[in-house]
Amino acid sequence: MDKQKVLSDYRKQDDKMLLAQILDKIEFSRQRDKLEYTDFLDMYQISLVKSFMKKIEFENYVLFGGFDDAERKVLVIYPEKYNMQMIEKNYSKIISVIRIALGEDEKGKYSHRNYLGGIVKLGMKREKVGDILVSDDGADILVKEESSDTLKQELATLTRFGNAKFEIVNLSELRKQEIKIEEISIIVPSLRLDNFVSDLAKTSRSKAVQIIDSERVFINGQNETKVSKQVKLGDVITIRGKGRFVVKELSGTTRSGRSVVKIEKYV
Predict the structure, then answer these.
(1) Rounded distance, CA 125 to CA 139, Å?
(2) pTM (2 decimals)?
């Protein structure tokens, strides 16, 4: 395979670097006859990787983030001889879980932002950390296995976690986050994506177009940059930095012809 020719269709340098790394890992997996894997990928990168793998007709891979609905995932490339059971046995060697148990005075006060802010403050690269599952009494942080000990020790140095306890637990002990859903209704002039983004992100149409253009919007896990894309019943719309929304019901039209849409918002 001519790497430069394959990558010539991609304009962004970051995209080229990621895909070049993946091509290298595919080759390493073949040569060494073992698993190869990346750091955690965000939703845009996952969408990019899926389309790239389809383009090069490569199927020996899985995307895994520690649990089924994970937003951030590691790309795992495997040799032909591997089956899913063999791959799954290796997951705990790729991803670990740092469990934070808050002190009594902090319980119920910390959000996802508090934990992520602490990680960023420590200088830990974001790609080493996956989803952060928050509960009232603490959080489970998914992290690359090789970074787990370091992050555990450094988190304990932060003032905000001064009364907390830390431990590294196996993936099998991961505490699934309780999904909380809020039902809302929006009224849009048409079912175009930019109308939905404007209303859901609580911003102007022009700003909504900028958000879509900046590749921050996903429909059913696939990056979508077409502002006129028609949204359908059942679509899951994710706006990075704003949340995840499910189009639950098209419940009618107003006198002026606008569509009334019921939305389930993950909170």
Answers:
(1) 19
(2) 0.84
Q: Which two tokens stand for residue 16?
A: 């080229």
Measured CA angle at 68 (ends 28, 14), to 5 deg: 45
Say if CB 152 and CB 110 are below 8 A apart: no
HSE (side-chain half, CA atoms, 13 Å) at 130: 33
Model pLDDT for residues 30-49, shown as the tens digit of each residue: 999 999 999 999 999 999 99
Q: Give 11's contacts (C-beta < 8 A, 6+ positions apart).
A: none
Distance, first Cα to last Cα, the chain: 45
The enclosing H or E element of 258 equals: none
Rounded-to-integer distance, Cα 220 and Cα 229, Å: 13
**Using a CB cutoff of 8 Å and minimum separation of 24, what contacts does 76-80 make?**
76/35, 76/36, 76/37, 77/22, 77/25, 77/26, 77/29, 77/35, 77/36, 77/37, 78/29, 78/35, 79/29, 79/30, 79/33, 79/34, 79/35
**Whether 220 contacts 233, CB under 8 Å:** no
- Distance CA(131)–CA(215), nearest Å, equals 20
167 membership: H or E segment, kind and range: strand 165-169
Q: What is the pLDDT of residues 233-266, one digit of tens each?
A: 999 999 998 999 999 999 889 999 999 999 999 8
Amino acid at residue number 45: Q
Alpha-carbon distance of 30 to 35, in angstroms, equals 9
Q: What is the gyration radius of the CA atoms in the chain, in angstroms?
A: 21
